[in-house]
Write a structure and sequence with these properties.
The chain is mainly beta and about 160 residues long. The protein is about 5% helix and about 70% strand. It has one domain: Porin.
């Protein structure tokens, strides 16, 4: 009997499961946005507290996680008003923690621009994670240069 168990154990490849972060998710975040504008429109540095929303899907790619995320940052007091867009997200999980980078496009007033940032996600329950993130974008439109930085914390619900 031991020999048959040993043979069976050797013929079945070990199971490799998905990371804690693969699959679809939705989230809510709260953040602080700092922005300014100079040129044709001048607005000194301004700080606003804002809510935001996310939704995305992550895939396991070997030891890494790659995904896409849509977002809405509702920072009405910012020089760029509210922003929404889509980012590609690349991370490397370490157990329940995943540092990541993101890069994509944000669209709204005054124009479409490159959006990027850094973050860390911590999976504290089977379907829940906490996220902390910094994102930035810069606009040069109609003779005005706008800078936009957001620092957020949030929670995400994972459907996997």
């Amino acid at each position: 009997m031991m020999l048959s168990n040993l043979v069976h154990a050797q013929s079945v490849p070990p199971q490799t499961g998905a990371s804690e972060f693969a699959g679809p998710y939705v989230g809510f975040k709260l953040g602080v946005n700092t922005s300014d504008a100079s040129g044709a429109v001048n607005k000194a540095s301004h700080t606003a507290i804002f809510p935001g929303f996310t939704a995305g899907y992550n895939f396991d790619v070997d030891r890494f996680v790659a995904g896409a995320e849509v977002f809405a940052d509702l920072h009405h007091g910012s020089t760029t008003s509210k922003d929404g867009g889509i980012d590609a997200k690349f991370g490397m999980p370490f157990n329940q923690c995943m540092p990541y980078i993101r890069v994509g496009l944000t669209m709204d007033r005054p124009d479409t621009r490159l959006h990027w940032g850094l973050g860390v996600e911590y999976k504290f329950a089977k379907h829940m994670s906490a996220v902390s993130e910094w994102t930035t974008d810069t606009s040069n439109h109609d003779g005005t240069r706008r800078t936009n930085n957001s620092f957020t914390i949030g929670v995400q619900y994972h459907f996997n």
